[in-house]
Design goal:
Elements: H1 2-20, H2 23-52, H3 59-64, H4 71-77, H5 82-103, H6 108-127, H7 151-166, H8 168-180, H9 184-217, H10 227-249, H11 256-278, H12 295-317, H13 333-364, H14 372-394, H15 410-423, H16 429-450, H17 456-477, E1 480-486, E2 491-494, E3 497-506, E4 512-519, E5 522-530, E6 536-540, E7 542-546, E8 549-556, E9 564-569, E10 573-575, E11 580-590, E12 596-605, E13 610-620, E14 623-625, E15 629-631, E16 636-643, E17 649-656, H18 658-662, E18 666-674, H19 677-692
Antiparallel strand pairs: 1-18, 2-3, 3-4, 4-5, 5-6, 7-8, 8-18, 9-17, 10-11, 11-12, 12-13, 13-14, 15-16, 16-17
Helix pairs in contact: 1-2, 1-6, 2-5, 4-7, 5-6, 5-7, 6-8, 6-12, 7-9, 8-9, 8-11, 9-10, 9-19, 10-11, 10-13, 11-12, 13-14, 14-16, 15-16, 16-17, 17-19
């Protein structure tokens, strides 16, 4: 907490020094920026030390880590909760601030604004600190959500927060230019580089989150229009507006006003999305949101401050900004880029309205959310129009009537796009038009590159965009799903694929089980992570990948899985269909680590023979763990799951034999995703092309 307080104090002091604008105070400001980053770095290292040393006397460590957690996920526990994620955001912001201070590329006014934003982020961390002591003494933590124990989710949040943090830099350039009257050519190139970097990282984070959802969640999709997903998408769209309008402003300085607007809204929407996801408003509408808490009001106030301050400064300085025409005529690239930006504004506004619906409806009555069809119906026509505008824009140069290439040949690309969609089983008109427009944009991009009308990075990114949208049509509208209960060893013909369920397999440590399938002779496995008591913790589907697309298998365990739970009183007998059980006695031993070892003796009879067995459980203050014990040669298994304080009663779970459980039929949802690999390829091209554009 001391280092966090030092971070805040030094950030505020740096603001004053940079605002003074003298050579000496600027030097002090750079030193204070470095000191502020050093302080937040100390806080971050200290939190990692607490996590790796299993300091469960700290509430955050107890909530998101355990003794047994692998090292990679102990690292990701750093940002698993909102306290740690705020600290991560602050750390990245401080690192970028240190770079800016050393490079001296940003003016004193810009650094003052940037360090003011750093102070506001520090307020978030202080308001929701990860260093609060734990009220309860525990021997082990609750651990990371099993769904988050995945390599993709270990890298997804840091990449998202790099994008969030770096969007503050173009805002600082923009506001500093308004304050000082700096000429466009002096700050636009630097702002463009930072915006492209932020845009690439934010896009990569969104892509990784979509791939994780597809690979892990088992619902068969990569995008659910979840409000939390949208809270990252909207700033990404607005940052895209910033990048493209900035290019026009380098040629037509009258567009500078639009650049300032996009810079303010891009960062303000980052804060707004943070408010939605962390205030608890979306608790009933999103699987990603955090529980409600007092931090929401703090974020809302900061968001309002940034937005109001930025717009007020822009209004005050508007009359001093360059005036003139935004474009020379309708047949120019300037007009097409600005029209495309306008379409992206409409798209962002619609998604913003949809994701804000729980908040808006809560203000007037019962909170409600829009369904996914709302987003599809409203954004698909805009996406088609945007692709057509991109196609027309790429075939033109900047200036009046500068035609780079004829667009008639692109009709072939459009026809091929419709053919691809039709071959994938798409019959709806709008998705087919989207597929056609996507490939026409790809063709226009290639032609523009050959005519030197677009750089290499822009070419790669625009091709990636077209491929991604084509893949969304093929794998989304072209997807087919069917549910079938499958028996072990039997083959099923589903969508032209031969699928055989080969049964279940259990790992040696009892922490995982696999549903094994063969798809056209190739073995694939669906993973289920298990809690310590043997119940399902998280499921991952089985995916058979191919050039033509994926076969996606999501098993759903039967509700009647042969397991039974009974309560036994000491000396009394209870029965199931096969055996009778009697609880004889138990002992409780205290272990060195403070845990309790409970051992219970149980007698079992089948009517002819009597078998005595001992079941045990390791009990802690926050739960217990136990392993099943086989009885009567493995015909069934017993697990001790509870004991009363008086030791007069125990709770037993009766499980079928491993062989019986492994051969139970399973309900499986089978989906085909035509050419979905194109989506992953296209997403990588968009992000890679954006970074490649930095070289220009």
């Amino acid at each position: 907490m001391i280092s966090l307080a030092l971070t805040l104090v030094t950030a505020l002091a740096a603001v004053l020094c940079f605002a003074a604008q003298s050579e000496r105070t600027l030097r002090w400001g750079r030193g204070l920026s470095a000191l502020s980053f050093a302080a937040v770095l100390v806080s971050s290292i200290y939190l990692l030390v607490l996590i790796f040393h299993n300091r469960f006397d700290i509430a955050y460590v107890a909530n998101y880590s355990t003794v047994e957690l692998p090292a990679i996920y102990k690292f990701s526990a750093f940002w698993a909760g909102q306290q740690g994620s705020f600290l991560l955001w602050l750390l990245i912001h401080g690192m970028a601030g240190l770079y800016l201070a050393v490079k001296r590329d940003l003016s004193g006014a810009g650094m003052a604004i940037y360090m003011a934003l750093q102070a506001l982020l520090t307020v978030f961390v202080l308001a929701k600190s990860p260093f609060v002591p734990n009220e309860n003494v525990v021997e082990n933590g609750m651990g990371l959500n099993p769904l988050l124990q995945d390599p993709w989710m270990a890298v997804h949040p840091p990449i998202i927060f790099i994008g969030y943090a770096l969007l503050a830099v173009p805002l600082a350039y923009s506001m500093a230019a308004l304050l000082t009257g700096q000429k466009a050519q002096a700050w636009l190139p630097s702002a463009r580089r930072w915006a492209l970097t932020a845009w690439a990282f934010l896009g990569a984070g969104i892509f990784i989150g979509g791939y994780w959802a597809y690979k892990v969640l088992g619902w068969g999709g990569f995008w659910g229009w979840d409000p939390v997903e949208n809270s990252s998408l909207v700033p990404w769209l607005v940052a895209g507006i910033f990048v493209h309008v900035l290019r026009v402003a380098q040629i037509r300085q009258a567009a500078i006003t639009m650049v300032h607007l996009a810079g303010v809204f891009a960062y303000a929407l980052v804060l707004y999305g943070t408010f939605l996801t962390r205030s608890g408003i979306l608790g009933d509408f999103s699987v990603h949101s955090f529980a409600g808490n007092s931090i929401g009001m703090t974020i809302a106030v900061v968001n309002a401050l940034v937005l109001i301050a930025g717009l007020t400064l822009l209004m005050v300085k508007a009359k001093h900004l360059p005036q003139g025409e935004y474009y020379p005529g309708y047949n120019s690239r300037e007009f097409m880029v600005l029209l495309g930006a306008l379409l992206m504004v409409f798209m962002s506004a619609i998604i913003f309205l949809g994701m804000s619906m729980p908040l808006l409806t809560q203000l007037i009555g019962n909170p409600a959310a829009v369904d996914t069809d709302f987003y599809v119906r409203t954004t698909m026509p805009l996406a088609i129009a945007l692709l057509l505008v991109i196609t027309c824009g790429l075939l033109r140069g900047y200036g009046q009537d500068k035609i780079l290439a004829d667009g008639k040949k692109l009709v072939v690309f459009g026809v091929f796009g419709v053919a691809c969609g039709f071959a994938a089983g798409v019959r709806q008109v709008m998705p087919l038009l989207l597929a056609a427009a996507a490939l026409m944009a790809v063709g226009a991009t290639v032609r523009a590159f050959r005519k030197h009308g677009i750089g290499r990075g822009g070419m790669v990114a625009h091709i990636g965009l077209g491929i991604s949208l084509l893949a969304m049509v093929l794998a989304g509208s072209g997807s087919q799903s069917y549910s079938q209960e499958m028996n072990v060893g039997e083959g099923y013909e589903v969508f032209g694929h031969q699928i055989v369920f080969k049964g279940q397999e259990f790992s040696a440590d009892g922490k995982e089980k696999y549903y094994v399938y063969a798809v056209d002779g190739r073995e694939v496995r669906a993973l289920t992570k298990l809690h310590d008591n043997g119940t399902d913790a998280a499921r991952e589907p089985a995916i058979d990948k191919g050039v033509g697309g994926d076969v996606y298998l999501a098993p759903t365990p039967a509700k009647d899985n042969g397991r039974l739970e009974i309560i036994l009183k000491q000396g009394r007998m209870d029965m199931d269909d096969d055996f009778a059980y009697r609880y004889d006695q138990s002992t409780i031993l205290k272990q060195e680590d403070g845990k309790l070892l409970v051992q219970a003796e149980v007698s079992i009879t089948d009517g002819d023979r009597v078998e005595h067995t001992e079941v045990s459980m390791v009990a802690t203050a926050d739960g217990g763990t136990s392993q099943p014990v086989e009885i009567f040669g493995g015909q069934k298994r017993l697990r001790l799951t509870g004991v009363t304080q008086s030791q007069k009663q125990i709770r037993l779970e009766i499980l079928p034999s491993l062989e019986t459980e492994a051969n139970q039929p399973i309900l499986t949802s089978v989906s085909v995703k035509p050419c979905i690999w194109l989506l992953w390829l296209g997403s990588m091209l968009v992000c890679g092309g954006t970074l490649l554009a930095l070289r220009r």
